[in-house]
Design goal:
Length: 601
């Protein structure tokens, strides 16, 4: 049973459940009451982990075999209706209830916690509201302005209203966050369009504004965060293709993706044990900027993020979130195939240790330690860290990092579960989309088409790393010309790092364009000792160039240096022709590291 703050007794939960089902809000919604009762009673029996979409579909909505949740969205749709009904209830009839029951997006386990009364801010005084929330209350206080939309476009208006409502509800449901009542915001907003004045009157830590634009097939949602001073401190853009059958899900996912980015990570904020320090508010926009660069996942953006995190750490040395960002960036560079220096590996470890020292109850800090363990080829320590991180916070980024590790173990079904949950919360994340493509690439069957990597619902342009995986699948499908054309497109339209150039040269070689591949290798010195490419990736390139001895030589160097990329050898399709070679067996033994969890060759 979950309790975000103090423990809530079973009797108090049962009483609240009956009050909800008998309320005017729920009285005429028997299916939602059945959903609510089934999940709450299951959680009270300690069976919350069993509350999956398939189980609810069969037990609550009487779906019969064969039942495919991916094709029948009844549970997801009803879960959103239930969350909206709960919000409506607690905004009206349930204002004085002592116990709150709510659900996080993408999760069917109910959460129970004691209610925290909000101050009444419906009157607009000449200066500030008396007893404003963030003067007396801990956590982060946010005001959400109604998202703007194109005039005369009823569908855009509906999407804008849906995202606004979902965002307000999610902020209410997020540990460590408070949201100003929409009525209070509307009253102040009707008297002033000055966001700085509105922030001052409501005395909030952050104001969120946004807009929705659409054409016949695409929707663009732009979101902006405004500091109490009135400065626009961060912005994010979310693109998706319209699908009227899934619009409610897309609205909810957009709102949850916003919260995944701006929600508090620090345990003292999430547990409502402290207010947001002034220094945190001043650096928060820069932290979000660094994290956005980190999510882009290219070599250049990751190096830029590391530079930003280091500068932030010098100004705010007590921020565990900043330390976590540095470790995650170095780990992401290793995933790209970049060569990390001993100094960089040490920096990654020091940052992870520092994050844990600063905030041992922060899920992201334990996930950063998991990434540090992976850089040291300590699979056992990494899995323990990721598992513990998820008990503290079910973040989509933690799930994505854990899924990457599970793939190295060959535990693809477990990785798929983590990524499915991650995608439900934030399908726009580049890191999550690349990890999903990596999993589909590793589990691809010859009967599948290469475009299996593309999202069923497009969430913006495909990251370049996804296109690389698609080119490699085209090769495995025997479509060498298409693979070479896609590699050429990537070369023309991006600024590839040395590691990506290594991958592109390998694709060209395997597509039969060996001369063109060698031209790339020579021009960018991809096989030199000074190249910013790991020896493991250089070995893969040599294998594509049909130079088996050079491949073995680079693998020996990788083993001697204990490169982080060794953990992928056991499942890397590019090296399958070397499976029986002694150097591969030796490399796999090294890649198991101090733990015992790495995949066998």
């Amino acid at each position: 049973m979950n309790s975000a703050k103090e423990e809530v007794s079973s009797q108090a939960i049962a009483t609240e459940l009956e009050r909800l089902c008998e309320s005017a809000t729920f009285r005429n919604s028997p299916r939602l009451c059945r959903f609510l009762r089934y999940t709450v009673e299951s959680a009270m029996r300690g069976e919350g982990e069993k509350l999956k979409e398939y189980v609810i579909g069969t037990d609550v909505y009487d779906r019969r075999h064969p039942y495919y949740p991916s094709q029948d969205s009844i549970v997801r749709t009803e879960a959103k209706r239930l969350r909206n009904k709960l919000k409506e209830y607690y905004d009206t009839e349930g204002l004085e209830d002592e116990v709150l029951i709510y659900y996080r997006t993408g999760n069917y386990q109910p959460i129970f916690r004691r209610s925290e009364r909000r101050s009444d801010t419906t009157k607009m005084p000449a200066e500030k509201t008396a007893a404003a929330p963030n003067e007396t209350s801990p956590g982060v206080t946010i005001a959400v302005l109604p998202f703007r939309h194109q005039k005369g476009d009823s569908e855009a208006a509906a999407i804008a209203a849906g995202i606004t409502d979902d965002l307000i509800f999610l902020i209410t449901s997020t540990d460590g966050c408070r949201v100003m009542a929409s009525q209070s915001v509307a009253l102040v907003h009707s008297r002033t369009s000055d966001v700085a004045l509105l922030s001052s009157v409501l005395n909030v830590d952050q104001v969120i504004t946004g807009s929705v634009r659409k054409d016949a097939t695409h929707v663009r949602v732009s979101v902006t965060g405004v500091h109490p001073s009135g400065l626009e401190t961060w912005s994010e853009r979310f693109d998706f293709t319209t699908n009227k059958n899934d619009l409610m899900i897309l609205e909810e996912q957009t709102a949850s993706a916003i919260m995944a980015r701006i929600g508090p990570h620090e345990s003292v904020l999430r547990h409502m044990q402290a207010r947001v320090p002034t220094v945190c508010l001043s650096t928060f926009p820069e932290i979000l900027s660094a994290e956005a660069a980190m999510d882009q996942g290219t070599s250049a953006s990751l190096r830029s993020a590391i530079f930003k995190f280091k500068n932030l750490a010098a100004r705010q040395p007590q921020s565990a979130r900043i330390q976590c960002g540095m470790t995650q960036c170095y780990y992401s560079l290793a995933l790209l195939g970049e060569r990390l220096t001993p100094e960089e590996l040490q920096e990654a470890k020091i940052a992870a240790v520092r994050a844990l020292q600063l905030d041992p109850e922060m899920g992201e800090a334990h996930a950063a330690m998991g990434c540090s363990h992976l850089l040291e080829l300590n699979g056992e320590g990494a899995e323990e860290a990721f598992r513990h991180a998820l008990t503290l916070r079910e973040s989509p980024n933690i799930r994505q990092a854990y899924a990457d590790q599970l793939m190295t173990l060959g535990r693809f079904e477990d990785a798929a579960i983590q990524l499915t949950n991650s995608r439900r919360v934030d399908p726009f994340s580049h890191r999550q989309r690349v990890s999903t493509a990596r999993l589909r690439y590793l589990t691809w069957h010859p009967n599948d088409e290469p475009d299996v990597l593309r999202e069923e619902i497009q969430y913006g342009p495909a990251p370049t790393q996804v296109l690389l995986f698609e080119a490699e699948l085209l090769l495995r499908k025997g479509r060498e010309a298409d693979a070479a054309n896609l590699a050429d497109t990537i070369l023309r339209n991006s600024d590839p790092s040395s590691a990506m150039l290594s991958d592109l040269a390998a694709i060209l070689a395997l597509a039969g364009l060996t001369d063109k591949a060698r031209e790339l290798v020579d021009r960018f010195q991809l096989l030199s000792q000074d190249a910013l490419v790991s020896s493991t990736y250089q070995a893969r390139l040599c294998m594509a160039l049909r130079d088996r001895e050079a491949c073995r030589s680079f693998l020996k160097v990788a083993v001697a240096q204990q490169e982080p990329q060794l953990c992928w050898l056991a499942i890397d399709p590019k090296l399958q022709d070397l499976r029986g070679d002694s150097i591969i067996s030796h490399a796999n033994q090294v890649s198991r590291g101090p733990g015992t969890g790495w995949a066998n060759s």
